[in-house]
Q: What sequence folds into this?
């Protein structure tokens, strides 16, 4: 799976609050801890989320992302720490008093109520006159294109329709913050892609801050303005999707998001604008066009994305950033091909190349002897 | 359950053959419970119905035969009387007995529901280990005889029984209360005996309920009590209906509890039935009482069934 389909973010530049140092965060999570008995689900997490963001919490199961979301909703009380939403400390506010709504992973539609009644449930609790409830429900159902199904019961709807009812129900109260727990998890691939764009459209239209929990890195990359990657109850990196992919700051993120080739090595030289790393699996030095601010001889990992490696039959000119090996596996994927190359040291390297020409005549195949090379800017040095 | 009896020379049975054998298999499966119902419900029902149309007489069996053979002609005369039914409707006593039974059963069912719901809710929400323990505690009373448990209540409730002794020793009362042989004792007995039949179906529906539904209700602004009324209760409806049917229907015809715990003025149709059969030896009238009771019960059963269908 590749993340080459990263969408350019359509958000206009002045809205990117998190890039401005003086911007006031809309949601502040301050040193939140959550213990379940001996188990620490969320470990001292601090996070600022800004207005109009679509923030993705990305992590595997048991990473603590859902617990963090449930604390934002008010279903779990933090063991310690504070949650501030729009300037108000909400740490101990019950869910029914928070200006926050949630779209559940299971959608949690009330099976005994019609689509209309499901969407109107929250408005009725506010004690609004029934005329206004009806109008707002109708408007919201039109927005998710379900106006014609208003009187159906949830069990008479398809999965995609149910997902849109759940979305409408969580949006109709115009919450300050919308929480989405794996919003696209139950949809098939094609529907998921369509819904991703619809979610982004709705989010921009309504100007509500979204926090999305997902385990699907592709989903996070497409949807998010920023991503927070969680592992073992800790946020390991917070960054925009592009930076998260191109500049991971540790091994976990590099491996979790997309594919990566990691080479263990030691720093040989480290200057302001260049550095060299010796890796035991590579015959030649790895040359970087920036300093890594490491001690000499510090052991590091060099991470190179598969699509940033060139694969050729002829030896490259550069004395650095090269290696050679034998192709052990080829996977033709249509738009691109994946090659597995065994280096002379025995290490397997993954390389992807776009299939630019329909038939290049001289196609690389099994057991071909090839050279690998990459640009000095293409590799990332990871110390942790 | 394929029972293709005809061996065909081709390895594959034809479409028609498969259709036939499938239908045969389906019939065999349905036949077993059908036969069971016919043998143990429908035929006895017809026998009772037949007796209810005859007249009581001192004979063995103690009722007039349905057909009377006239020795002079070759014809048999059918002797049918609706007198027993007419008698039931003319006498205030039987109507009162029916109404009283329905009232006692309804009130007992209500209290069984009020007591059983929190218990079922607690069991459904407790951890897996605790749940097994609590469920077996609910079922445990079935291990001793029902009659024995009713006798135990008699011992507890009588004038110098445990309940009165305790109440007197803590100074709440000076004189022992008359608890046994009152309607209260009957309610107590029915609620106690039928509680598991209420708890188990309630537990089943509550246990499979998606807890995120309650969270969703709270998330949308419903306080816990509102969330319970608007989500938990409507979704528990099938369980409530099943539990109420399991308690109400047998409670209407209950005999042992009113006979042992109730007073002489506790009027229930089960007791009337017993008296007619064994004291008055009026089998035809007793049969009519039984048939009318069945008809009276069909009403609430149909009502509850419809309610259940609407539920989900």
A:
């Amino acid at each position: 799976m590749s993340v080459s389909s990263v969408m350019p973010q359509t958000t206009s530049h002045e809205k990117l609050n998190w890039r401005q140092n003086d911007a006031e965060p809309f949601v502040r999570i301050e040193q939140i801890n959550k213990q379940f008995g001996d188990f620490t689900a969320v470990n001292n997490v601090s996070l600022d989320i800004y207005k109009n963001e679509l923030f993705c919490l990305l992590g595997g199961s048991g990473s603590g992302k859902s617990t963090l979301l449930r604390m934002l909703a008010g279903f779990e009380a933090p063991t310690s720490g504070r949650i501030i939403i729009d300037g108000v400390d909400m740490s101990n506010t019950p869910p029914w008093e928070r200006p926050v709504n949630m779209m559940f992973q299971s959608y949690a539609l009330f099976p005994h109520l019609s689509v209309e009644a499901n969407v109107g449930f929250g408005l009725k609790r506010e004690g609004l006159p029934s005329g206004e409830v009806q109008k707002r429900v109708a408007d919201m159902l039109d927005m998710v294109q379900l106006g014609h199904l208003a009187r159906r019961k949830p069990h008479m709807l398809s999965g995609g329709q149910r997902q849109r009812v759940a979305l409408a129900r969580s949006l109709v109260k115009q919450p300050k913050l919308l929480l989405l727990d794996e919003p696209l998890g139950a949809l098939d691939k094609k529907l998921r892609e369509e819904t991703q764009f619809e979610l982004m459209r709705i989010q921009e239209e309504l100007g509500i801050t979204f926090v999305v929990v997902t385990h699907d890195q592709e989903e996070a990359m497409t949807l998010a303005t920023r991503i927070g990657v969680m592992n073992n109850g800790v946020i390991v990196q917070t960054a925009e999707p592009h930076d998260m992919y191109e500049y991971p700051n540790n091994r976990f993120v590099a491996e979790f998001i997309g594919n990566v080739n990691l080479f263990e090595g030691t720093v040989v030289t480290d200057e302001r604008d260049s550095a060299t790393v010796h890796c035991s699996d590579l015959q030649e030095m790895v040359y970087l066009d920036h300093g890594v601010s490491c001690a000499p001889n510090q052991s590091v990992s060099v991470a190179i994305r598969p699509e940033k490696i060139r694969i050729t039959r002829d030896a490259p000119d550069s004395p650095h950033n090269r290696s050679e090996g034998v192709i052990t596996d080829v996977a033709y994927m249509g738009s691109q091909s994946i090659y597995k190359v065994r280096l002379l040291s025995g290490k397997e390297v993954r390389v992807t190349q776009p299939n630019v020409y329909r038939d290049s005549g001289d196609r690389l195949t099994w057991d071909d002897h090839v050279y690998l090379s990459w640009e000095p800017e293409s590799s990332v040095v990871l110390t942790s | 359950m394929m029972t293709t009896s005809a061996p065909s020379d081709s390895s594959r049975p034809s479409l028609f053959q498969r259709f036939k054998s499938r239908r045969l298999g389906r019939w065999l499966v349905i036949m077993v419970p059908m036969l069971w119902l016919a043998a143990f419900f429908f035929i006895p029902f017809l026998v009772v119905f037949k007796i209810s149309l005859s007249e009581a007489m001192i004979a063995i069996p103690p009722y007039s035969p349905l057909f009377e053979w006239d020795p002079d002609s070759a014809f048999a005369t059918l002797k049918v009387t609706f007198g027993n039914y007419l008698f039931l409707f003319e006498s205030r006593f039987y109507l009162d007995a029916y109404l009283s039974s329905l009232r006692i059963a309804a009130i007992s069912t209500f209290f069984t529901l009020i007591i059983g719901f929190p218990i079922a809710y607690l069991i459904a929400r407790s951890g897996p280990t605790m749940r097994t323990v609590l469920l077996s505690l609910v079922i445990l009373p079935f291990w001793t005889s029902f009659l024995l448990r009713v006798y135990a209540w008699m011992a507890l409730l009588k004038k110098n029984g445990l309940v009165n002794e305790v109440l007197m020793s803590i100074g709440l009362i000076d004189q022992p209360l008359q608890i046994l042989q009152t309607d209260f004792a009957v309610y107590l007995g029915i609620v106690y005996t039928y509680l598991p039949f209420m708890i188990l179906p309630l537990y089943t529906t509550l246990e499979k309920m998606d807890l995120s539904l309650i969270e969703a209700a709270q998330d949308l602004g419903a306080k816990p009590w509102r969330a319970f009324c608007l989500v938990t209760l409507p979704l528990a409806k099938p369980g409530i209906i099943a539990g109420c049917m399991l308690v109400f229907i047998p409670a209407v015809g209950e005999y042992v509890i009113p006979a042992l715990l109730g007073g002489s003025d506790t009027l229930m149709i089960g007791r009337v039935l017993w008296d007619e059969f064994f004291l008055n030896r009026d089998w035809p009238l007793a049969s009519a009482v039984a048939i009318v009771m069945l008809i009276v019960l069909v009403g609430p059963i149909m009502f509850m069934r419809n309610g259940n269908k609407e539920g989900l």
